[in-house]
Please model this.
Amino acid sequence: MSDTISPLAVPFPDLPAIAGVTPRIARAGYKDWGRCDLTCVELAQGTAVAGVFTKNVCCSSEVELGRAQVKAGRARALVVNAGNANAFTGRRGRAAVEAIMAQVAAHLGCAASEVFVSSTGVIGVPLPADKARAGVASALAAAPCSWQDAARTISTTDTFPKGATATAIVGERTVTISAIIKGSGMIAPDMATMLGYIFTDAAIAPAFLQQLLSHAADRSFHCITVDSDTSTSDTVLAFATGKAGNARIESFDSPGADAFAAALEAVCLQLAHLVVRDGEGARKFIAIAVTGAVSDDSARRIGLSVANSPLVKTAIAGEDANWGRIVMAVGKAGEPADRDRLAIAFGDTPVARDGEPVAGYDEGPVAAHLRESEIRIAIDIGLGEGRATVWTCDLTHGYIAINADYRS
Amino acid sequence: MSDTISPLAVPFPDLPAIAGVTPRIARAGYKDWGRCDLTCVELAQGTAVAGVFTKNVCCSSEVELGRAQVKAGRARALVVNAGNANAFTGRRGRAAVEAIMAQVAAHLGCAASEVFVSSTGVIGVPLPADKARAGVASALAAAPCSWQDAARTISTTDTFPKGATATAIVGERTVTISAIIKGSGMIAPDMATMLGYIFTDAAIAPAFLQQLLSHAADRSFHCITVDSDTSTSDTVLAFATGKAGNARIESFDSPGADAFAAALEAVCLQLAHLVVRDGEGARKFIAIAVTGAVSDDSARRIGLSVANSPLVKTAIAGEDANWGRIVMAVGKAGEPADRDRLAIAFGDTPVARDGEPVAGYDEGPVAAHLRESEIRIAIDIGLGEGRATVWTCDLTHGYIAINADYRS
Model:
């Protein structure tokens, strides 16, 4: 955790415990720092699991293994290493992960394939197997810890711990979701890695949990960007212990499935926003709502083109209502758009319509909006019904300072 | 032109005059600055023209018109306005361009469609027709100017004037190419616009000139990136007056066609490199050579993924041999790649091979290379024969200062 806290930070929420989920932490000493860096979460027998992973083809062994493990839908434990991403480390890196899986499986009396491992930190240094072994042993022997402690322990250069919760009424039971995430702070040579873990006491079929998680990820984690760089280790896992006692959710026909899906999506969205709020150097939280595209996917791609544009992000950092840069970013997205139908608004103020500046445009209210810390940009493409909202942060000297001024 | 000159600047070369090409400049006063900002180049009758234009769908009227004009293959004049991009200005913007075309055509006694217009600068403000009219009249009456004056006049926030030249022996004649370009400096709310103009006395069929220019652009202008943002106005035009007296080059079967193609490509590459050397805030010129991809196109896309990665660009700015970020950028390119075959080198020093750090890797020579101002990164994908080189600059505090610290 960094000393300087993001100006967009929010307090850690009061996360309810989840029956069947026991987090513990320990010091493996992956880096020369005086804090816990290994998290081990024990999960009750019968816990269902689903996951979404980075699309980066140079992914870590953890991601490769996790992607295969999640297909069986069962989990008994999660181990998260902070300080070493163990990516691009070849066979030695993979062996280190398999050793952790075997060690935890022996302790819990489960299959190694039920133990999920994530790692985050420096790339290209194999995870030290001895430190991992001692760290895991120490975590397994430790007393349970709080969610906040776990959220701090999975962090690398995050500036604040991040969690989210929601409940849903499923049949006649209340099910609870508690989730933690890390991501978006970084100090060279570490990667900006997003690792998110969602725990619920709901009983739900693994295949349906996967379906809901993938859908929620498309509208949350896949709609945020800090700097357009995709980590080799990004992972979001959802674990469902089934301890709430609800009739198992099998599909959208099951009672309460809609409520659970909405709660899961709300949690994912909150987690995604927390990552943006801790974006490197971020001083402004930016929501870009695209409407009128030819499809929802097209709207998302246009939104991400704007959200990834360094010229748009620096303009917002400079509190400059430079909508010409938004026109440029829409036009370069490679998606259907018609310059002469485009409309753009900052906050509640239209600045351009039908491909021209709005007549009698008054920059006053726009300038006032841009001085706030939460910025809204609305873009109407004028072609169809497709819509999407994406979130990003501004691009500031802080980003350069974090990523360039430090020598590894 | 900016007061602070890029540390990567090079002196303006001694550009030969091209028979049939007469540049002139004038003050239209598009901005409140005390310098010439309108360039008018008169071209001899029978001049062939070819062009490549931005793919940004929100392009300016100048680009829309130019794209149509170039199909006829004939040009008599070029007018370049600096200080106003006239993009996203609707019908009024288009009328301003058409007025310039008509005014020059009347003076030269040619068709309006033979007059090419480009504009660069602020977006969303229609080009003031009265200033344009007076400026064009004044340029048409002016004495011819030097290439360097023309290169300065088409600039906006460039920090140095840019030109390139080459010759080729075609049949028994020497043909000459002289070219100027502007691009990559910017002050909000201006666009980073690349405008390049290539003049030659060669006699060449317009369709073949277009073929050669498109090919050269794919290997030069389309292989550079400063900040991944694509301007609404990017334009490169090639004009061939035919005054060298060579037998007209019709195809690759014509004598000297290969030599001319090579000279044209050399000029395009030099122009493209000059733009990178004037990239906003640039302190290092970076060449990224990708080999072993499944195709040349795939290699170029991988190279651009690396060249556009803010994490890679900030690492180079920090002189940090953070090859993990290169692995990440290769992996996110969406192109075929195999983590376990990847090899990476900085300068002449391999740092990773077969998906792992090189055994006994010594960072000393890499650190020394990174302290230089020209950086070479070699990436071998290990899958095929595809290759491409792309060029970019580092991402520094200077970029943020130029684009965020200024309020429009």
In short: Residues 285-404 of chain B form a domain with the Ubiquitin-like (UB roll) fold (CATH 3.10.20.340). The first strand of chain B starts at residue 21 and ends at 26.
